[in-house]
Here is the input.
Amino acid sequence: MKMIMKNIIKKLFVPALVLGVLPFMASCETDDESNPILNQPESFVLNVPAHANDNVYDLANSTYVNLTTSQPDYGFPVVTTYQVQVSIDPDFASGDAAKVEAATYTTLETTYNQANMNVNATEMNNAIVRMYQEKNNGADPSGIVMPVYVRLRAHIANSDKGWCNSNVITLPKVVVSYVATMPKTVYIAGSSIRNGSEAKPLAAVYGFEGQFYGMAYLAAGSTFMWGDTDAPDKGYALTNSFDDQAGAGLSQGADGGIQVANGGWYVLFMNVSVENNQIKSALTVYPGEAYVIGTVMSQGDNWGQFPETQLTAPADASAQWVSPAFLAGGELRASIKVPGLDWWRTEFTLYKGDLYWRDCDIPDNWAKNVGSDYSVTCEKGQKLYVDFDYDRGEVK
Here is the structure.
């Protein structure tokens, strides 16, 4: 009979916190007869929940799954951060270190700082659904009773020290349900995107949930995939609708991806929604256009995307886009053009050499409302140079 695990015996609790441990961490790594020695444990023990073999974990209808662990032996009490890793791959529970590391698993987003932790059941459910679908060509695992394997990864809080893994435990009877969730990020990947070596994240449209955009160079005949992880797996068939506003010539490629007949720079605009527990997606392809805005182009109060402020596109992804020379000094304001959206919803600045997409209200300017590190001061005669393939830029 299906049961929802409600009460797990609480065996271990996090040790009392020792104030001031982290500030003298460096001195703790050597024994000077006054400070404790920082150990580097090889492993620690994750306990099998009481009655795990007798109960069914119905994750979609549960709030949490309780896990308890012994703290890694660092040689003294210290605040520890725990990550939860889950897998449906039997190799993850094999005990063979090489197989465990090679197995497919997911690290859940939420972390914990106590040795008695209530792990978010929804996160666990969604991770297992995703892994099952990736392994079974998108099949729905809802209602299937399956074993799930769990491991903890720990390190000393607010530090890069003390990383180690626990043993792997098995929850023999787990039931999951597919629950469509709005993607937080959308990625694209293809042979002409970042040399085919990595996925490129699209930016979220400021103020509108489920809308994402980005500039990409797509070579003639190339294909690309999209998805909500950095290993995009959705192609032509899993995209619900297309609107080719740029004459790209979209079709289904031999690899199942979205193929482009005509090469060039394009703005990819993805609108994603959840309907009847299903992800619905609409891809619009616009001509690739980007603009410098505002003070540095002497626009006064008439800010917007005008021909005289448009960046010039390179022939392909091997070179940079270049703006017109600035007509005045001031703070850099720039944006990608997505027809139908205000320029400031797709605005970007430079932060440590990378493009930083607007994600907050800016009633005054980047310096005042976001921070000086996000504000680029320009001089008359300088230009903006942008690598839209890797989303990097500079003013010089």
